[in-house]
Design a protein that fits this description.
With 341 residues, this protein is of the alpha/beta class. It is built from 14 helices and 12 strands. It binds 1,3-dihydroxyacetonephosphate (13P) and iron/sulfur cluster.
């Protein structure tokens, strides 16, 4: 039995909110978006949205991006209020980086299955077994877990962060086992000790679905998020040549956006949460984007709606605050990451 097997199963640690279908007409959507635009000015607010947000929420954002880009925006915005259209750990990161701002998360059900796989107490117990190790925490963790960590990282910079750590030091990589395996392969490090966490959405993106897609679309380019359940198998297939190294890429959500400008391909298979397709299709309407798994929907991300954003701007609630001492310690790990990228 591995030294982390006792943490399983993780499914009992979170409740998946239902994904509500919003039946607004185009005119109603437009009217809500206009009201949000006016209120945003009155409140001196900025709206930050993750790439997995509902299409109509992405459309009202001042900035849409990945976890890294959102952290950088939160750290540098001159606005007084940040409306965070994403999930709890992202809003916490914004609150840590901008303690003098009001950070709003329009729906408190916006959690994250991956971040709930490890608590600060569990990390402390795990660290005690490896006193010589450096702790690298994925940004998808609570502020308390970041406060127990040496470095933070996102999917966009995990390889850079790990490479900046002395090769002799073992690394406790928390909490995503798929990302940990991808980083171990990309850095060639044998001393990464992975926590067994995973995202319940990305885990369902399976190697069989990738192979089926490649069989049906032989010229398609494959863009895979490193949280996916298929990542280890796809990397092994790239290494043995059964997947083309010229047409298979392991990328963060923003990495997928950037990849488009360097690619001449017409068709792309997207291995991540389906919200990503909106931005890709918007920026390249002449190209074709197919989800590897069309069922890969993050229930937590979809709790944020136009109605929720409106309510938040009207009431300035719910606010996300991180206790001062936790924020101070977590910021050290986040700042170390931001210095590397
Ligand atoms: P990135 O957008 O940083 O690639 O991360 C994806 C994710 O899991 C957000 O929850
Ligand atoms: Fe968390 Fe997965 Fe949703 Fe991202 S997609 S917020 S990792 S549950």
């Amino acid at each position: 039995m591995s030294d982390t097997a006792h943490f399983l199963p993780f499914e009992s640690r979170y409740t998946l909110p239902p994904v509500e279908m919003i039946g607004d007409s185009p005119a109603e959507i437009l009217s809500k978006q206009e009201r949000i635009g006016r209120l945003k000015e009155e409140r001196n607010a900025v709206i930050l949205a993750h790439n997995y947000q509902r299409d109509e929420v992405q459309e009202i954002a001042d900035f849409v991006g990945d976890s890294l880009g959102l952290s950088q925006q939160a750290a540098s915005t001159p606005a007084e209020v940040i409306v965070f259209c994403g999930v709890n750990f992202m809003a916490e990161t914004a609150a840590i980086l901008s303690p003098d701002k009001t950070v709003l998360l329009p729906d408190l059900r916006a959690g994250c299955s991956l971040s709930s796989t490890i608590t600060a107490k569990e990390l402390r117990a795990w660290k005690a077994r490896y006193p010589e190790a450096v702790v690298v925490s994925y940004v998808n963790t609570s502020a308390e877990v970041k406060a127990e960590s040496d470095y933070c990282c996102t999917s966009a910079n995990a390889v850079k962060v790990v490479s900046a750590i002395s090769a002799e030091r073992p690394i406790l990589f928390v909490p995503d086992k798929f990302l940990a395996a991808a980083v171990a392969r990309q850095t060639g490090r044998a001393n990464i000790i992975a926590y067994p966490g995973y995202c319940h959405v990305h885990r369902t993106i399976r190697p069989e679905q990738v192979l089926e897609m490649m069989e049906e679309h032989p010229d398609i380019e494959l863009l895979i998020h490193p949280e996916c359940g298929c990542v280890t198998s796809c990397m092994a297939r790239v290494a043995d040549g059964t997947l083309s190294s010229e047409r298979t890429f392991f990328l963060s959500t923003e990495g997928m956006m950037r990849h488009l400008s360097n690619s001449t391909a017409q068709e792309f298979a997207i291995g991540t949460e389906v919200g990503m397709l909106h931005r890709l299709r918007k920026i390249s309407p002449d190209k074709s984007f197919l989800p590897v798994n069309p069922e890969a929907v993050c229930e937590f991300m979809k709790t944020i709606t136009l109605d929720g954003v409106l309510r938040s701007l009207e009431t300035l609630e719910p606010q996300i605050c991180v206790p001062q001492e936790t924020a101070r310690r977590a910021k050290i790990a986040i700042d170390r990451m931001l210095e590397i990228v």
